[in-house]
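Appendix B. Raw example, untouched.
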Amino acid sequence: MTKEEYLALAASHYEDLEKLKEKENFYDYEKGFDEIWTDLGRLYIEAQLNEMSTTQDRRKKKR
């Protein structure tokens, strides 16, 4: 994943992060924040694993 791809992924969650400002209490804010960052992390890891599996597949084919 390139820096640009990561920034695009993070930017896709920016509006959700901004909506957290509307929460009435810190508990709801923190819960929403955790959900957003967990989702962002999952997407990042999935992209990294897909990239790695593609690289490993290429190595197997070359041998």
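End of appendix B.
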